[in-house]
Amino acid sequence: MTNKYLLILLIAFLLTGCQQVSSISESAPTTIPEIAKCIPEGQVPQTAKVVEISDGDTITVEISNQQYRLRYIGINTPELGSSEHALAEKAANYNRSLVDGQEVTLYIDTSHTDRFDRLLRYVIFDQVFINYQLVRSGMARARDYYPDSACKEVFLYAEKQARKEELGIWMDE
What we know:
The chain is an alpha+beta fold. It is built from four helices and ten strands; from the N terminus they run H-E-E-E-E-E-E-H-E-E-E-H-E-H. The protein has helices at 3-16, 85-99, 130-136, 152-164, and strands at residues 18-20, 31-33, 46-53, 58-63, 66-72, 75-76, 103-107, 119-125, 128-129, 141-142. Helix 3 (130-136) runs parallel beside helix 4 (152-164).
């Protein structure tokens, strides 16, 4: 995907807002943000309640009265306890401000779980593509974890914009 295509995609998102999603479950929202059109088609969304924020890229959700750790697909935030601890705290707090206690909509790419048995998902809340928002705000880096790569180019573009604007991780670089 070229930068020109991504720019067109971003402009389309800003101009059109939302579009219907096929194969939607009754309990899930009927629209997703245009920027999230990279999510593979045919996915049946799943609704979950966020019950805990572990850090900037990992949350705990409740689905059908069971709790699961969930890792956002395609992003990576600084680790708590690392040399980037202050940034990790900011990323965790920003993540908390976006989704803590909220009902979110989850989408699968290819893999259901990672090697740590965490769910791997794209997350949407209130028309915000959370994975994208964390990168775009400079709180996360775009990371391609093949085979879950459907939104790789969208996240790379978001990171490029955050770097250009010197947001979050990219301040004073």
